[in-house]
Design goal:
alpha+beta, 3-stranded antiparallel beta sheet
């Protein structure tokens, strides 16, 4: 007998869980525009807490989606930029934005 029960792909599940975390999409969306300092990201996503932004950036860095760039000026300058892996999310996020425009009510 053949099992016709659909199975969830573990890679898909991991990707959706990563990108679907609160504020992650907003952070990636802002970094798609340009390299940004922490304070710029905080201003661009005004409802995010410092703790949450720091946590999301660390997670994205650990996943190879974001790189932290430290410039040893005085004071030290820290910026965040998407890696090639992070930039590859541009198209899926654009498609999601199109879907949201068509199917979700405006706030």
């Amino acid at each position: 007998m053949t099992d016709h029960t659909p199975h969830l792909c573990p890679q898909f599940h991991a990707a959706v869980e990563l990108i679907g975390r609160r504020w992650t999409g907003a952070v990636i969306r802002m970094l798609l525009e340009r390299r940004m300092r922490y304070s710029d990201l905080k201003a661009a996503v005004p409802e995010i807490s410092d703790r949450m932004l720091s946590e999301r950036l660390k997670e994205l860095e650990a996943e190879g989606i974001v790189v932290r760039i430290v410039t040893p000026d005085t004071p030290v300058k820290v910026e965040y930029e998407l890696t090639e892996k992070g930039r590859a999310l541009e198209e899926p996020l654009r498609v999601l934005a199109d879907w949201a425009s068509a199917w979700t009510p405006a706030p």
